[in-house]
Each structure stands twice: as C-alpha cells, then as structure tokens.
Design a protein that fits this description.
This protein is mainly alpha-helical. The chain has seven helices and two strands, in the order ββααααααα.
C-alpha cells in the first residue's frame, strides 16, 4: 500500500522487473506517488471542492463582490426560511461562507436573523401587536430567528 497518497485514495504498489549488470532480473517496487490532485492541477482540471474554495476566496477578497454575495445569499436565505425553519440554518451558512472571517460571519448571521425577524413581523400585518403579547412564543421566535443563523454561520470556521 502507498502511504504517501494525500487524497485518500491508496494506490497499490506494482512490482516491476529490474535488470541489473549481471542480466539477472530482480523484482522491485514501483514507488511513484502520483496522485489525482497532482495530475489535476497540472492539466488545469480541479476538483469541484477546490474550485468552489478558490471562487469563495476571490469573493471574500473583493469588498464589492462580497457585498453582492451577501445580498444574494440573504435573498436566497429568506426564501429558504420562508419554506422551512431549517432554512434559517442554511441561510446562516450561506452568509457565513460569503463573509471575510468568522467574526464577520457571526455578525452577518445576526444581521440576517434581524432581517428575517423584521420580514416575519411585516408578514403578520395587523396581527403583529397581538403576536408580540404572546410572551413565551415571542421569546422562542426571536431566539430562533437569531440563534439558528448564527449556528449555521459557524461553518465559516471550518472553511
């Protein structure tokens, strides 16, 4: 087994015949450590994960592209959150991935949560005052609107 493989794929060592000066043939082991990732970068082909990481780095480096990405991920996140509560976690992950660092990702997630909470309050219309009086439910609503995106934005610490 080849223990030098860096991409997780372990290649079998292939025996090859080697002739020495006496004409005898000895069996040696092929120790080439060529990996798929090395060959991929030489040809210009990259894995989708590496390409996504490179594009995210470009977006994070340019303030204008980062602002556009944050607005776009906020709109997508609001649509996801409208469909299901887990959309708040996904939205936090999206705004977190577009942020420059972990602290900005956390701040962007809190900002998204406040925007989502505001959109929810506007969607209630005339019933907003009645809903605000429902104390225990309001605490859960505000806590989840801010806490779930923050949970999702922690993915920025991994990437």
């Amino acid at each position: 087994m080849n223990g030098d493989s860096t991409d997780g794929n372990r290649a079998e060592l292939e025996p090859t015949a080697v002739a020495d000066a006496d004409g005898d043939t000895d069996t040696a082991t092929n120790t080439s450590t060529s990996t798929d990732t090395d060959a991929g970068t030489a040809d210009g082909n990259r894995s989708p994960v590496a390409e996504l990481g490179r594009r995210l780095a470009v977006v994070r480096a340019d303030p204008r592209q980062r602002a556009v990405a944050l607005v776009l991920t906020t709109v997508i996140g609001l649509a996801l959150a409208w469909l299901h509560w887990f959309g708040l976690v996904l939205a936090g992950a999206l705004v977190g991935l577009a942020s420059a660092n972990l602290w900005r990702a956390l701040a962007a997630a809190v900002g998204f949560g406040l925007i989502a909470l505001g959109v929810f309050a506007v969607s209630l219309g005339g019933a907003t005052a009645t809903v605000i009086e429902m104390r225990p439910v309001v605490y859960l609503t505000v806590g989840s609107a801010i806490g779930l995106p923050v949970l999702g934005s922690l993915v920025r610490g991994l990437v």
